Amino acid sequence: MNTLGIIQARMGSKRFPGKMMEPLAGYPIIEWVLRRCLKSKKLNKWVLATSVEENNEPLIKVASSLGVEVFRGEEDDVLSRFIYLKQLYKPNSIVRVCADNPFIDPIEIDRLILFFQANDFDYAFNHIPKLGNHYTDGLGAEIMTSDALGSLLQKKLNSSDREHVTSYIVNHPSLYKIGTFSAPDNKSYPHIRLDVDQIEDLEKLNQILNLGSHFLPEDIKTEEILEKMNFGFGS
């Protein structure tokens, strides 16, 4: 397997408990993420990595209904979930998706994979506006080599590093080759944040987008979302 996609999610968010099953335009957030990731043309293997806590059962039911495999590991040690799946599937690279990004764009996942395959990086990203890429926050993903992920087992990591998986890599650019690339013009809105960290984020998205429920989450165009968000921000 060349590239494995791992979507991390849990119901026990400290800032917004249960947010993964909260409705956004008629669908739970986790369903938005799964459906949109499944539209990627460069990835045909996705795994939902959640924890063994019983409150994650609703996430497993949604994933199973969409044919997405599930792995259950430690609640706070998210890195251990990734390491297990790396060892199980032995991919060359791993795409990491955080499930608080309901509008993740499968086109941007594919763009990230192609960029990574064409270059010599340990880690690359397009999920946040950083290093001058001007991306909208919440559209893309992260990708790393299997070796880069495995190297974390030899590092002195704190609990935050193990929870956030890639933070050690990002914070040690002298040890890892890190890359990104410019957002296309129609997705270059670094002032817009589409991830859901708190209930206020979800309320704002529901209010501004006002999408209704006459569509499937994977069918709505990112450009339509950004147009509505720009108008909502008064741009």
Automatic annotation (TrEMBL):
CDD domains: GT2_SpsF (cd02518). InterPro entries: Cytidylyl_trans (IPR003329), Nucleotide-diphossugar_trans (IPR029044). It comes from the Bacteria. Coiled coil: none annotated. Pfam families: CTP_transf_3. PANTHER family: 3-DEOXY-MANNO-OCTULOSONATE CYTIDYLYLTRANSFERASE, SPORE COAT POLYSACCHARIDE BIOSYNTHESIS PROTEIN SPSF. This is Uncharacterized protein.
